[in-house]
Amino acid sequence: MGVDYYFFYPSFNRVTYYSIDKFTIIQLTDPPTSSSLSIPINNQVCEQGTSVSEIQSSVNFQWPTSTNTDDYDLRIINLNNNQTINQNNISSSNS
């Protein structure tokens, strides 16, 4: 399945003054499916992790894999100061 487009261009033959070519654009792969954080629970206060110091913990983030996906982006929001940390291009479903 695809979308048909037509390309019009001048023709220099004696029968017509223009030519029409049809071409189709197809999507070769399906778009990625969405995935949502499963550990810790998405959009909830995180109370999991291993204490690293009095003010820091190490947290393992996990989510189900999605189809047609090469990498993932993870956005972490510190609820104490609203600071956002973005981790991009993660190649596995846990970080």
How would you briefly describe this protein structure?
With about 100 residues, the chain is mainly beta.
Q: What can you tell me about this protein's structure?
A:
This protein has 95 residues and is mostly beta strands. Helix content is 0%, strand content 37%. The protein has no helices and 6 strands. The chain has strands spanning 2-10, 18-26, 50-51, 57-58, 72-77, 84-90. Strand 1 and strand 2 (18-26) form a beta hairpin. The two termini are 37 Å apart. The mean pLDDT is 79.
Which overall shape is indicated by the principal axes computed on the Cα atoms? elongated
Number of helices: 0
Residue stretches low in confidence (pLDDT < 50, at least 5 long) are none
Largest sheet: 2 strands, antiparallel
> Strand order, biggest sheet?
1-2
Q: What is the β-strand count?
A: 6
Radius of gyration: 25 Å
Distance between the termini: 37 Å
Structural class, please?
Answer: mainly beta
The helix fraction, in percent, is: under 10%
Name the helix and strand elements from N-terminus to C-terminus, one letter apiece: EEEEEE
Mean pLDDT: 79
Beta-strand proportion: 35-45%
